Structure prediction request, 112 residues.
Amino acid sequence: MPTWKFWLAWLVLVLYLALFSLVLLREWYVVGYVADPAILATYPFGSEGPAAGARNYANAEIYARTAALNGLASTTLLLMALVAGWCRSRRLLGTCLVFAASAVVWGIASAA
Prediction:
């Protein structure tokens, strides 16, 4: 029987992944699918702004592709976390936590 620590970790992970998936897939939709020039002009792509020189921010296409892939990966992890809660599997929840933590580290490292 899972303890309150299991459910707390599960809740935090699910909320984090849901928010992360929502934000990333929204970014893909706005930048990649809608691609309104007025909106794209507000994004600092290329060698300007705080993301100067970052590969993910080289242009709108790369940014949208990266956001879509990261959003899909977060959604996959979210589904895995939901299954872990449904099955009450500590092992699967631990795996999701490790993958989510490594995705955060990878995202921070690739943005720099």
Q: What stands out?
A: The mean pLDDT is 86. The chain is about 75% helix and 0% strand. Residues 43 and 54 are 13 Å apart (CA to CA).
